[in-house]
Each structure stands twice: as C-alpha cells, then as structure tokens.
From TrEMBL:
Region listing for Disordered, in residue ranges: 341-375
Organism: Penicillium arizonense
GO biological-process terms attached to the record: maturation of 5.8S rRNA; maturation of LSU-rRNA
GO function term, MF aspect, one: endonuclease activity
Entry-linked InterPro entries: Las1
Pfam families assigned: Las1 (PF04031)
GO CC, alphabetical: Las1 complex; preribosome, large subunit precursor
Protein name: Uncharacterized protein
Length: 401
C-alpha cells in the first residue's frame, strides 16, 4: 500500500519557488523576495507538517532581514538572531523530542552539525547573547548547512546544472553562470549595486562549492574562470586605484570555497603569480592588470584575514617565480614576502616577549625609564605622585583619625 505524505505545500514547485526566494539563483534579476518567502512559510505553519529545516531557514532569513540598526535596537537584533539560531539547533539536536536519549553533541555528530553550533546555542541560551559579529557569521553558516543538508537534495533540473564530469566546457559554463551575480552587470547590462552583491555573496559561494563537489576538475577550472573573466578586478580600473572594495566583496566567497576545497587557494595563487611573472607586458610597471595581480597576491599572502588559509599557499613557488621573472611588481612582491618570512624568524618567543614587557613595565613604574620619570614630573605639577605606603583597609571601614 502506498504511503501517504501530507505537506504544507500543494506541489513541489511551490517549495522550489520558496527555496529560490531564500537562495536566489544566478539568473534572478527581480527584487529581494526573501521577506515573501518568510511570509509563505508562516502561512504553511498554519496548515502544519512544515519540516524543521524549512522553518529554520525562514527564521534565520527573517533575523537577517531584521538586522537594521536604523530601525531596530542592537539588543533586539541580537535577541532575534539568538532566538532563530537556538530554534534551529534545538529542533535538530534535542533528543527529548523523539528517539533514543543522547547528548546534544552526540546528536549533532550524527547529523554532521558543527559542534560549535551546540556550544553557541548553549551560550545564547544560558549566558549573555553573543556579539553581532558572531551571530551574523553563525546565521550565514547555518543557512549554508541547511542548503547542503536539505535544500540541495530537492531535485530541480532547472536549478542545478547537469554537469558532464569529462566535459570541461560544461563545468566552465556552470561556474560562469554561478558567478554572474557578482560580475558587475546583470543580463540587461545594468550595473549591480554593492548591496545586491553582498546579498548574493552567500548564494554564489554555495553554488560554487556545489559545483566543485560534483566535478573533481571544477576546483582547478574555477581559478581559470576567475582570472579569464577578470571578475576580481573592477572593469576600467586605473593604475594606483585601491582594490579594498574588491577584497571586501570577494574575500568571503573565495574563503567559503577554500574552506571546503583547500586546493582552490593553491591553484588561484599559482595562476595569479604565473600571470604576473610570465604573462606580463613589456611595460609591466605601467600595467593596471599587473598591479592588480600584485595587490591580490600581497593581500592573500600577507593579510591577517587570510592567515588561517595560507597553509595551503605555495609561498616558496611564488617567490621563485618572482625571482625568475623580475620586473617592478614581482620585485615588490618578492621583497614583501621575504621580509615577512624574515620577520617570523627573528620574532622573539612569546615567553621572552612577555618577560621583556614585564621588565619594561616594572622599570617604568619605578621611575628608571626616562619617559616614565618625565611623565611623573608632569603629573606632580598637577598634584599627582607615587604612594610610598599603600593603605589596604577594606571598603566601609572608617578611620579613627
């Protein structure tokens, strides 16, 4: 006998429509529909039988939409994020609801849920709400987890491209389609605003990761597509212009791919330095593209934002390539990386640095330092001075004198 399953939606197309509103596709050109998706899920809850993953997606998305300091207080924003995140985690790992009783960490391990989610849920429930930075990051990671563990499993041929594992052209085409929302212009040639790019950043990163999961060669091809399309460098950029806006826009996307596929960062840095060192024009010092490659490599290989991921970067190869093909920007990059490496070698150990700092503090307090003695003189002119004998009477004790 066939098993009957009741759902809150009439057809799978309705569920897919809501998914596309929560996770916009690369071809989406209309307004932001996430608020409408939250309203639809709220209506479905009145009918019942709404999966927890669908409800949690709506709650987390609504919390992100609530994140507006001009309209809402910081406390209410933190409270909304905390409530949505706790509801998401508790609905998954609370074994009191159903099944054999196990600890939340054991249940999270079974589901593939990061243990940090359970820890953050405990903190938000029993202590002060976490900071906005932590909550925003947790909400994004939660939506990514929900995509990988629920939404991506809903069959939809029109959403996910059918990839031929042996056909690099089809993989490249899929990667280019996924990158389209961040390429600077939509299908009509209209410039995409910075706010819209930020909204699509998480969705684009997840699509790139999904493609790389399906095709083994996609990680290598993604680096080629990024450089061939020139999406990491603003169109019409002139020599000397900053790339800080591009760093802020692309760092989260590139890091999301590197977290899942560490080899991606190795391919990207190798391709960048090859373009910089071996494909440079004769007048590389006056080339905006060569300068952009130098700035990107310097950012990835030296900025603290990429410190955790740099272990997969071939820094020795980058230095060797720069030394073999020397021009203005390769000399700058090689000198910068060698200086950083020498700084790490010469840096004192943490114990000796702490000891030196303590000794310096003591000498300053005792007046042996010239700067400390001058400072005490200035303070003494205003009635300040060192206490020769400290009176450690408890608070509330009245002296007989």
């Amino acid at each position: 006998m066939a098993k009957v399953i009741f759902t809150a939606w009439k057809s799978k197309s309705e569920l897919l429509d809501v998914r596309n509103e929560f996770y916009p596709t690369s071809s989406c050109e209309g307004p932001d529909r996430r608020a409408h998706g939250c309203a639809v899920v709220e209506a479905w809850k009145l009918r019942g039988n709404v999966p927890h993953h669908v409800e949690a997606t709506a709650l987390l998305t609504d919390a992100i939409l609530h994140d507006d300091a001009e309209s809402n207080s910081i406390f209410s924003i933190r409270a909304t994020y905390s409530a949505a995140f706790c509801r998401f985690v508790t609905g998954l790992v609370d074994t009191k609801i159903h099944g054999v009783r196990r600890t939340m960490f054991q249940r999270a391990m079974d589901l593939g849920l990061p243990a940090s989610f359970v820890e953050l849920r405990h903190e938000a429930t029993h202590r002060e709400p976490p900071s906005l930075v932590v909550l925003r990051k947790a909400a994004q990671r939660s939506l990514e987890w929900l995509w990988d563990n629920y939404w991506a499993g809903i069959a939809d041929a029109s959403y996910a491209p059918v990839l031929d594992h042996d056909d690099g052209a089809s993989v490249k085409a899929a990667l280019e389609d996924a990158l389209q929302p961040l390429c600077g212009a939509d299908a009509d040639g209209q410039a995409v605003s910075k706010k819209r790019k930020r909204d699509f950043g998480v969705s684009v990163a997840m699509q790139l990761v999904s493609i790389c999961n399906v095709s083994a060669g996609a990680v290598r091809l993604l680096s080629e597509v990024l450089l061939e399309r020139g999406v990491l460098v603003p169109a019409g950029r002139k020599l000397g212009e900053s790339l800080n806006d591009s760093f802020r826009e692309w760092d989260p996307v590139l890091q999301r791919v590197a977290e899942t596929h560490p080899s991606f960062l190795r391919h990207l840095t190798e391709d960048m330095v090859n373009d910089l060192a071996f494909k440079n024009p004769a007048d590389a010092a006056e080339s905006p593209l060569s300068e952009a490659m130098y700035l990107w490599l310097s950012h990835i290989l030296t900025h603290s934002f990429w410190e955790f991921h740099r272990q997969s970067c071939p820094q020795s190869y980058v230095i060797q390539a720069c030394d073999e093909s020397q021009h203005h920007f390769t000399k700058l990059l090689s000198r910068h990386l060698k200086k950083q490496a020498d700084g790490f070698k010469k840096a004192p150990s943490s114990r000796s640095a702490t000891k030196n700092r303590v000794s310096k503090d003591k000498s300053t307090r005792n007046g042996s330092s010239g700067a400390g003695f001058q400072l005490s003189e200035k303070l003494q002119q205003h009635g300040w001075g060192f206490v020769e004998k400290w009176d450690n009477r408890p608070l509330g004790v009245v002296s007989s004198n």
